[in-house]
Amino acid sequence: MMVEPGAERGLPADPFNLLITGVGGQGIVTASRLLAQVAWSDGYQVTVGETYGLSQRSGPVASHVRLSRHLQAPPQIPNGGAHTILGLEPLETIRVLEQFAQPESQVVLDPTPVFPIDVQSGTIPYPPVAQMLEAIQGLVKAVWVVQAQSLAQSHGLPQNLILVGALVGCGAFPAPPALLAEVIGQFFTGQHREAALRAYHLGLEQV
Amino acid sequence: MTDLTLDQPGSRVLLMGNEAIARGAIEAGVDFCSGYPGNPSSEIIECLAAASRGAGRSRHVEWSINEKVALEAAAAASFAGLRAVVTMKQNGLNVCADFLTTVNLTGSRGGLVLVVCDDPAALSSGNEQDSRQYARLAQLPLIEPATFQEAKEMTRMAFEFSERFGLLVIVRSVSRLSHGQGGVELGPIRKEQTIPHYDVSRPLLAAPPIQQNLHQRLLNTMEGVRQVWEGSPFNEYSGPVEAEDLVIASGLGWLCAQEAIRSLGLKGRVGLLKIGTPWPFPNGVVIPHLQRARRVLFVEEVDPFVEENVKILTAEQARGRDPIAFYGKRNGQVRGPFGPGVGELSTDIVVQALERMMGLSPSRRLEGFRQQVKETVHPLLIPRALSYCAGCPHRASFWVIKAALALDGQDGFVAGDIGCYGMAMGPTGFSQIKALHCMGSGYGNASGFASLRSLGFKQRVIAAAGDSTFFHAAIPALINAQVQGAELTCVVLDNGVTAMTGFQPHPGSTFNPWREEVEPIRVEALCSGLGLEVRVQDPFQVKEATVALYDLLQRPGVKVMIFRSPCVLYQRRQGPKAMVEQGRCIGDECGCARFCARVLGCPGNAWDGAKGKAYIDERFCDGCGLCIELCPTGAIVFSPAEGKKGHDG
After folding, report:
1. What value of ipTM does the predicted structure carry?
2. Considering only CB atoms, which chain A residues are within 8 Å of B371?
3. Contact B183, A40 (CB under 8 A)
4. Which residues, listed in sequence order, are joined to residue B638 by a DSSP beta bridge?
């Protein structure tokens, strides 16, 4: 490994806070564990906060991934403390902004809606995606919009890994791309490993 | 799942809190592990089960029928000289309280450890409860980890403590620790094994007239434990010597307090005392700090447990010293958005309390931004409700219940219980459940309602419980209803697994914790054994099921309807999916205004507003056929699939 270990490099902020958000079943917990493992391998202290179980039945899911050179941070990101937000779904991305975003936040998101049950049934309309993107772009420092779901469908690859690639590729998460590929190789087995690596590299190319 | 049997002392790994707890038990050489699934504790037994097969130490791991039996079984292992661990969520402690308050008197032999995982903020629970109160009630030692490393260390050491004191030791975790992840250094794994044997020359009996002596013995032992706790490194102070401003924290709140102190730049001014051994309360650790303190802030969840103990101590030590200003839950100084003692802790709550205590003006840094976010985002936000998965049998079962009760015309309602099916208190289950409390309470309440007929009660009641809940707690209530001569129809929602908590097996499952095939105990066999009328029914045969349930409702006595169909998250269907014939769909005019999408509400049933027609979202459709059976115009059919037999429904 040519890159120096992360704990020597320093972080944009300490603790550095990543919030991952989306809908139950999208692979948020997998993504957060993968990124946590990468940061850990890179020499950082890591804390992950997760909520799961009931949420898989169509509800919102969020994971808090916190990195530090020296400290064990508590599992929940404080208000206004998200340095980077990875949104697997646009409605769930705007939902977390009031509590966790700051003007300096960087947001990487997939604009593909997953309809809540009341939208699916035609009872209430889904908010226009263009308006949601405009709102996010008007509030935070940097936004990357990645059509991960479309790519996932056309290539037969996992959406969450494509977004992890985009996240690392655009520099919004402090991890060397090569290290991430290495950890993906250890994290998954068999054909899942191959698909995960291809998805990851596809994501890197999008930003 | 991480390999928790790694024999590499000194290596550092990233572990989930529950994995750290399981590893602690493994390092202690635990022999017997039991529990009942309950969020946030379930992964501990899953990890221990995964670690108990293969080469190395033999170990017994079980999902018990309920927490009381789990504790009783673990205690037996301890009585026979083995090390035993039992795990549960906070409600489980309520279930085993009767044994807890008797085994404290008789004591333990091999190390006996009870791990309880509380759920502050009731993220997936019926209540917010502080299990530390049980330690005081039962007079048992309790330790509380504040970090992932402590989760492992405390669990490991709990067995040693238990053997030293001859008492069950409680380790108390919370959701954010159990389900979070952090760094842990592994230790050596204890290899020695004992042959279990119960020494009957020293029987363990909690019976009159010997409790008084046992009680005295317990209180004396606990005084000894207090002295050990007072010397424990789990109680740790950092900050200025003789600080006048003091924060006392226990549990994960210690990390929040550290972060809050740091972010306010108060590290040199404010002292931070961690209490890792909250019961028996380590008075000697706290008293020296109270001599100097003028202001004390408490950070803990859920109840002001440490807070109250410190205040008692302060009152006892009050003579000849200046009064202290306390900042805690009792005077509302430490509070979240729902008030003091309600909801979970966070760094922000501690920051706000510290600002009040130290007379700092609250930071307004993000006020403008937050206002801007509110104005931009609020008009766009819509809720995201929970619903049964596409193809879930509970949707079919509760539709059948709704239809049968409507036909029955007696203002019928369901007294329900805990599990995925519990969502029938909302629209996804057609709001059929009108009473819901703790495990087994659906059948318990129903037994009571059904006994009110002679007093003039006119409403029809159906008791509903899932299969795991049935075994856990509903059987005594079923027998009770029978003994009371009640007229009551009981439904069992049998999907083969304990689903909500992660597909663990129960006595009616066809697999064990290692996913090996086993013979299930059949609910219908139990009911027939009681002499009750019982029927097993596929809820997806909607017309047949509705008529069958309606019939049962008309009959006397206690009857049981078992709706049996597998959980779809655990076992997906392989057949064709549904499709809406666009020519036959009459959209909003179908008589129920979009019956399939709006009323049935399956994620697979979608509405195309532009075309004014329903369609099937193939990403979700499981091919269960429910909407096909129920569409008022018969516009939904099975999609013709190559090589698959068509359905004639």
Report:
1. 0.91
2. none
3. yes
4. B578
